[in-house]
Structure formats: C-alpha cells, structure tokens
Write a structure and sequence with these properties.
Elements: E1 2-3, H1 10-28, H2 33-41, H3 44-57, E2 64-68, E3 74-78, H4 81-98, H5 103-107, H6 112-138, H7 151-163, H8 166-176, H9 183-205, H10 208-215, H11 220-235, H12 242-275, H13 280-285, H14 292-307, H15 320-336, H16 348-372, H17 376-387, H18 393-400, H19 405-435
Parallel strand pairs: 1-2
Antiparallel strand pairs: 2-3
C-alpha cells in the first residue's frame, strides 16, 4: 500500500490521466523529428500505459494509499478510476467496437486462435511448477512455508488469475486456504508481472510486421476482417451530427445499463446455485458464474453482436469505434496507474517466481506460434485472454484494429470458463514441485 500521493481527488487524477493521453496523441502525430522516431520504436498505447505508471511511481497519484487519523488509526483509501473505467467504459467500448463486426469473418480467423489460447493456458499450468523447481535451487526459502502459509497455496491464486480472472483467483484462495494476511503479496506479484508482460506485448504490436515475418505467419484472415470492416466504415462514413453522437452514447451506455441490470440478477442467482452443488470439484469449476463482472462483459458483448445485425451498425460511419477507442485508452491509463515500478524491488523472491513463470508461458507461445505459423495477433491476444482476462484482452486486440476487440472478449470469456479447473490442475503440480 502506497503512502499518501500528491493528488488524491479522483477528479484531479482523471484530469492528469487525460492530459497524459493528450500528450501521447499530440506527440504521436508528429511526422518528423524526435517523436516521429520515438513512436516507431515505442507504440503510443504503451506510452498511454507507462506515463500514468510513472506518475504513480513518483508519488503524484496512487491507486490506493494509507493515512493515519488523529487517533492513530490507519485508514485505507483507494481511487475509483479503474473501477469506473472497467465497469462503465469497458463495456461501452466493447459495444461501440463490435457494432460493425462481421461475426462470420471472426469465425473465419480459424483454429490457430484457439490453439494459441490453449497454449497460453498450458504455459501457465506448467510454468508455475517449473518456476518453483528453478527458484528452489537458488533460494529454497522463497518457495517454502507450511500449512496456510505455504507459498504454493498462494501461487494457486496466481494460477486462477492468470488463466481465468478475479473470480477464479478468489475461488483458488478459498479452495486452498492461503493465509489472507499474506495474500496481498500474491496480488502484488499478479499486478507487477502481468503488467510488465502486457507492456512487452504492447511494444511487440509496434513491431508486428517484423515478428510475423520471423514467425512465417499467414495474416490473410486477419487482414480480410480488417479490410471488410474498414470498407464498410468507409461506405457509411459521414460527418457526425449531434443526433448521431447522442444516439451512439445512448447505444453504448444503454447497453452498459442493461448489462449491469442483468448481472445484478444473474450473478447472485448463479452464486447460490453453484453453492448448492454438493460435489466440491464441480462447484469450484463453476465459481466464475457468480461474478458480476463476467456477466456484465458477456451480456454487453452479446447485445453488441446482436446489434451488429441491425441498422445500428451504420453508426460506425459516424465514428462509433473511435468513441470506443477513447474509452479503451482511458481504461489503459487507469490500468497503468495501478503499476508502481519501485514495488518490483520490494519482494524480489516472489517476483522472480512470477517472472520465470511468465517467461515459460511466453516461450511456449512463441514456440507454438513458430511451429504453426500463427500471427503475432493470436499470440498476444491468446496470452492476454489468459493472463489479463476481459479487461486486458480487448485492449491488446483493439490495438491491432478496433474490429478485433471482440476476438479478445470471446477468448477471455472462454478463459473464465476453464480458469478454475485448469488452475486446480496447476496447483496439484505446484504442491508436488514444492514438496520435491
């Protein structure tokens, strides 16, 4: 937990994030000079993520912090910006980016997308146990502990997070009974390592042509989808009127409203239903159904896909996906704000486990992508659908093209479904590795 930052008011912090985004887009528009050369190496999306991270590192802003009251009591505070961005702006962005999608063309992307997704899952399942074995050779105490304090129990929560998401992570915490006083350290490793990996993927997007050439990848289906969406957007393109903009906002936030309304009913219903299942294995497998975030994202995406079969898709011509991109960039900035770069040095042992773990995940993805000649898009989105879930996968997918955001969501939702059962398999291996 950070000490009190310079700015704690979310209104001021949001303004700083928007100024950071404005700076990134302004400098990225330069055609010559230093910034032109800079953005050929570092993509703008990465900078939108890193500048807020630098603000947090320097103590200007913070996602959460502690203060001490006059009576000496420690009071915890947190910013609501990430919550608002992920719960309101993310579903709105998904709707606006999916309006003009051609679902048939998405399915035509083929089997390589699923292969890369499952490769990412396998990389997480085997990566953790291998990381324990390797780190134990150098620092046995780092992977030790007994009972509720056993490190492998804590790492099970990472497996749940990196295969599925927050709901799966919580399920693993409950299943294996890790000491909740130590749980914050695992959440910290999750945030640091996952965000570093996301940053690397974003940098790779700027070099995707070179990477695809090295992989020998066939990007024809991806390009066909992008061209189809772009051609449609060009066909219906018009100068948006105030009416157009208001209807776009109505479609986006009306859908957000419906998705929240439905999730408020569905999540508690399924939570009680899953809790009534006698078999622990089956019950744990379906824990994700009790997550409001899962239902919110799923319903928003479903509504958006249905709208893509109606005249609502014509609002792409008025800039629907551009508004969606604005929301995505705000979400990226709020995610970047959660990253304090100095925390990397606070728990080197656990971070080392996380880095080795993620390196195995990444290495396996690169190996399989090379073998099956899968495009970098499938590698990046397949990874983030596991590691980042529904909050990050659409960000990475839309960085290739707004029309591809749906691919990230569909794979991430699939990750929720298999997250707990795959994480349990991983934990069995973690326990064996720790015992060895």
């Amino acid at each position: 937990m950070n000490t009190e930052p310079l700015f704690t008011n979310d209104t001021i912090v949001f303004g700083l994030l928007m100024l950071a985004l404005g700076f990134v887009f302004y400098t990225e528009s330069f055609k010559t000079g230093f910034w032109s050369k800079f953005y050929k190496i570092v993509p703008g999306l990465f900078m939108a993520y890193m500048v807020p991270a630098l603000f947090t590192t320097l103590g200007i802003i913070a996602p959460e912090w502690e203060t001490t009251s006059d009576s000496g009591e420690v009071v915890e505070h947190s910013s609501n910006l990430y919550f608002v961005s992920s719960r309101y702006l993310l579903p709105a962005a998904l709707v606006l980016m999916t309006l003009s999608i051609d679902l048939k063309a998405v399915f035509n992307l083929g089997w390589k997308a699923l292969i890369m997704f499952f490769t990412g899952t396998v990389g997480i399942v085997i990566g953790g146990p291998i990381a324990i074995l390797l780190i134990s050779m150098v620092s046995p105490e780092t992977v030790g502990g007994a009972g509720p304090d056993a490190v492998w129990r804590g790492l099970s929560t990472l497996a749940g997070s990196w295969i599925g998401g927050g709901a799966n992570q919580t399920a693993m915490l409950e299943i294996y009974g890790y000491n909740q006083k130590l749980y914050g350290g695992m959440v910290f490793v999750d945030i640091v390592v996952a965000n570093i990996w996301m940053a690397i993927l974003l940098i790779g997007i700027g070099k995707r042509d070179r990477i695809n050439k090295w992989l020998g990848a066939d990007t024809a289906s991806i390009e066909a989808l992008k061209e189809k969406v772009s051609a449609f957007a060009e066909k219906v393109k018009r100068n948006p009127s105030l009416t157009d903009i208001m209807i776009i906002a109505a479609i986006a936030f009306g859908t957000v409203s419906i998705s929240h309304l439905c999730s408020n009913f569905l999540a508690p219903f399924f939570k009680d239903l899953v809790a009534s299942i006698d078999a622990p294995g089956t019950r744990n497998m379906f824990t994700f159904l009790g997550s409001k975030f899962f239902w919110m994202i799923s319903i928003a995406t479903l509504i958006a896909i249905l709208l893509s079969f109606t005249k609502a898709k014509n609002y792409e011509g008025a800039g629907a996906s551009k508004f969606g991109s604005v929301f995505i960039y705000i979400l990226v900035a709020s995610i970047g704000m959660k990253m304090d770069l100095m925390l990397i040095f606070d728990n080197v042992g656990l971070i080392a486990i996380g880095v080795v773990w993620m390196s195995i995940h990444a290495g396996l993805l690169v190996l399989i992508a090379k073998l099956i000649k899968a495009p970098y898009f499938f590698l990046a989105v397949g990874s983030q659908a596991n590691v980042g879930g529904a909050a990050s996968a659409p960000i990475v997918a839309s960085a290739f093209h707004p029309s591809l955001a749906t691919v990230g969501v569909l794979l991430a939702v699939f990750g929720y479904a298999i997250g707990t059962i795959a994480a349990i398999g991983c934990t069995i291996l973690l326990e064996l590795a720790a015992a060895g």
